Amino acid sequence: MRKKQFLIIGLGRFGTSVCKELYKHGHDVVAVDEDEEKVEDADGFTNRAIIADTTHEKTLRSLEPDSYDAVIVAIGDHIQESILTTLLLKELGVQKVWVKARNEQHHRVLEKIGADRIIHPELDMGIRIAHSLDSDKVIDYVEISVDHSIVELIATKKIAGKTLAKLNVRKRYKCNILGIKSGKSLTITPMPDDVLNIGDIIIVLGENRDLKKLEADLL
């Protein structure tokens, strides 16, 4: 895997979490925050941490943000700073700017000024938890568009011992099985003759209404 370079602006809980995960995966991570204490604390999970105010164009330009694979704006509590930083990044020609939004109003402004991806950590997690609570067969849920999702479904005795070919999920439900978790093992792009066991986790991609029908009929 190619080592990538990321610039994280904002070292709150979300920004710090992103830094730690990217650094753990071996990528080069540069973090920026106005708070000296937060910058000092970031020394253990970044390649470099800088004290700076990214709402000033000269300061932001000096960071050479267009040299990174992506810039993540994680300034969640200060909407004005988040918007101004995002605007400057796009004006400086940064191709991939991901931004944490605090609320829908913040989201709409970010959308208008060209943020490439807008993230709502609390909302996204809330949706995933709600889907897990809605059905005891849903282990996890990731929304990939308004109408499509990836879900992890637990195999019950209703389908135990059957092959994927027998279930024919793609033809009957227009859904695709991406993988099967069995204990600690994970099979990616499983074969038609693979047999499901009780407790296996099926990773399925499809339209939301088709996924619901699949869950109701087979599980």
Taken in chain order, the helices and strands follow as: EHEHEHEHEHEHEEHHEEEH
Q: Approximately how much helix is present in the residues?
A: 25-40%
In the CATH scheme, what's the topology name of the largest domain?
A: Rossmann fold
Biggest beta sheet summary? 6 strands, parallel
Q: How many distinct helices? A: 9
The radius of gyration is: 21 Å
**Count of domain modules:** 2
The CATH superfamily of the largest domain turns out to be: NAD(P)-binding Rossmann-like Domain
Strand order of the largest sheet: 3-2-1-4-5-6
List the helices and strands and how they pair.
Elements: E1 5-9, H1 13-24, E2 28-33, H2 36-41, E3 48-51, H3 57-62, E4 70-73, H4 79-91, E5 97-100, H5 104-112, E6 117-119, H6 121-134, E7 138-143, E8 148-154, H7 164-167, H8 169-173, E9 176-182, E10 185-188, E11 201-207, H9 208-218
Parallel strand pairs: 1-2, 1-4, 2-3, 4-5, 5-6
Antiparallel strand pairs: 7-8, 8-11, 9-10, 9-11
Short overview:
By secondary structure, the protein is of the alpha/beta class. The chain contains nine helices and eleven strands.
Describe this structure in words.
With 219 residues, this protein is of the alpha/beta class. It folds into 2 domains: 5-119, NAD(P)-binding Rossmann-like Domain (Rossmann fold), CATH 3.40.50.720; 124-218, Alpha-Beta Plaits (2-Layer Sandwich). Helices cover 37% and strands 26% of the residues. The protein has helices spanning 13-24, 36-41, 57-62, 79-91, 104-112, 121-134, 164-167, 169-173, 208-218, and strands at 5-9, 28-33, 48-51, 70-73, 97-100, 117-119, 138-143, 148-154, 176-182, 185-188, 201-207. β1 (5-9), α1 (13-24) and β2 (28-33) form a beta-alpha-beta unit. It is elongated. It starts with a strand and ends with a helix. The model has no long low-confidence stretch (mean pLDDT 89).
